[in-house]
Design brief:
Length: 268
């Protein structure tokens, strides 16, 4: 199998795909009918990954890593190996639902702040995308990731539904850890951590205006909505640019054609 060209940032190998290429790749993975997952690194992930060995292990198991965050796009241009596109869970969810409806694939929604939010997302998505098969949905209670009984219930529900695509929107890095931990117990499906995207689909949360997204200011929109929770996180994430600078100083930074699966710049 040919692997896409990559860009390394902070020791993380990011697949360099356009949005359309990423959608096609995810659909191809879904059709393999085995349990796999996609991660969407952003500045916050890159910072966490420097010191969190368990999170790095989650990244090592991903079938695809696509850039979610304009800072990654900016620094890749500085490196001279520009990433083709920012690819967010919020953008992937509706497009993949449209393609799933067109191609006869089923989806599962895990997340939404409440059952009402998840149910509204299901109703709206099925009304927008005619023929979309939402095989199941569930809004887990707070702390579900630490409750083996609750996680076992979710695993059994997904296995009964046998979806092709599973959107997990319970917040990062919780969603990535849960997917990685339980993926081997699930028979099929490509899993994507999509954060707040299920609430966006429901219309209960409003995304930043398109111009703010394009200028890399979506973080500011979210900060203004929830300053108490996000201010400390965003301040810490400024260290991403120092991490990128260190990456740029190392030899061998750039785009590569992988001959075998690669994690953190190392061939397996």
């Amino acid at each position: 199998m040919d692997y896409p060209p990559t860009v390394e940032i902070g020791g993380i190998v990011v697949d360099n795909l356009s949005f359309t290429e990423a959608v096609q790749r995810i659909l191809a993975l879904a059709k393999e009918r085995r349990s796999q997952y996609v991660v969407t690194p952003n500045a916050d992930h890159i910072v966490k990954l420097q010191d969190d060995a368990a999170f790095r292990e989650v990244y090592q198991g991903a079938a695809l890593k696509v850039a979610d965050g304009m800072p990654l796009i900016w620094v890749s241009k500085w490196f001279g190996t520009p990433l083709k596109a920012r690819i967010t869970g919020a953008d992937l969810l509706p497009v993949l639902c449209a393609e799933a409806a067109r191609q006869g694939l089923s989806v599962y929604l895990l997340g939404g702040d409440t059952a009402a939010v998840a149910q509204t997302a299901v109703t709206k998505l099925t009304s927008i995308y005619a023929g979309l098969n939402i095989a199941g949905w569930y809004s887990p209670p707070y702390g579900f990731e630490n409750n083996p009984t609750e996680s076992a219930y979710i695993v059994s529900q997904i296995n009964q539904c046998t979806p092709d695509i599973v959107f997990v929107g319970v917040g990062a890095p919780k969603q990535e850890f849960w997917i990685s931990k339980h993926r081997t117990k699930i028979n099929t499906g490509i899993f994507l951590g999509v954060g707040i995207a299920i609430a966006f689909a429901a219309g209960t949360e409003k995304r930043a205006p398109r111009i703010m997204q394009q200028l890399g200011l979506e973080w500011l929109h979210r900060l203004l909505q929830d300053p108490r929770r996000l201010a400390k996180r965003y301040l810490k994430d400024l260290s991403f640019f120092w991490i990128a600078y260190r990456t740029h100083r190392r030899a061998g930074v750039g785009t590569r054609k992988l001959e075998s699966k690669t994690s953190f710049g190392q061939k397996k």
